[in-house]
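Entry: L1 transposable element RRM domain-containing protein
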Amino acid sequence: MSLKRAHGRANTWLLPVFFLGLHQSVLDDSRNRDTILSKMPPKTAKTVQPTIPELEANRSTAAASKGAIDAGTLQAFRDIVKEVIKEEADSLREEIKRSVDPITTVLDECKEKIREHEDDLNNQAARLLEMETRYTALSSKYKKLQEKVDDLENRGRRCNLRLLGIPEDLEAHRAAGKPIEGGRPRPFIICVHYYHEKEQIQRLAREKGRLEYRGKQIFIFPDYSADLNKRRAAFNEVKKMLREKGVRYRLFYPAKLQVSFNGETKMLDSPTAAKDFYASRVVNIFDVALSKFLSYYF
């Protein structure tokens, strides 16, 4: 009997069935041979009856021969199954590798892109830190330069006076456009030749109190820049509160408030500091004095 094994995954499952049938066929042939021999007529020759030990030996030899045949067939079957399984495993391994290789390539590309993005982010972070440092330095320089420019502008105006409330229809040199009927009159800018004369005019205006011209009240102020006027105007609220309490104060150039209260003189650089001083010193003292007065008389 010859055996031609077909290759391919589709026919591999037939091999175990075939070898099981082959093993069964060998066993059936052995049984048929024993049956035929048993039905044959006995020989006429004189037979010698075997002894019991000989029968046992023959029986053992037959069993051993049958066991050897069964063991050899089983070993051959095992070898073939192992070979088939190995081929199947190798084929599956190759197929899995072919399927995984593109995924591995894509993952490698993703890793490379992530690495590039990390490098870009690190560079951007370093540049941002450098820009923040430069911005802080430039901001400080800009603030100093702005203060210097504002100081130069106000020094150029140090001999100027600003007059408010002068009625219209009066002549003036280089006056701005005339306002609408009933609008606020335009201010006058007066340039005094000497600074001490300008200070003298301001002092006399303070001593005089209310100033009038042709029945209209006028006001005389120093001529400051717009930024400095904003800084000085920020003290208006606290100045009003100090006036209500009868506390003496004075606003110095460029924007510093001097407060004299209860035998103490305090120079305050900002409106916040002035409000804190008012809340902690002026209000508390007036409240204590008022409570003592009320407790004494009532």
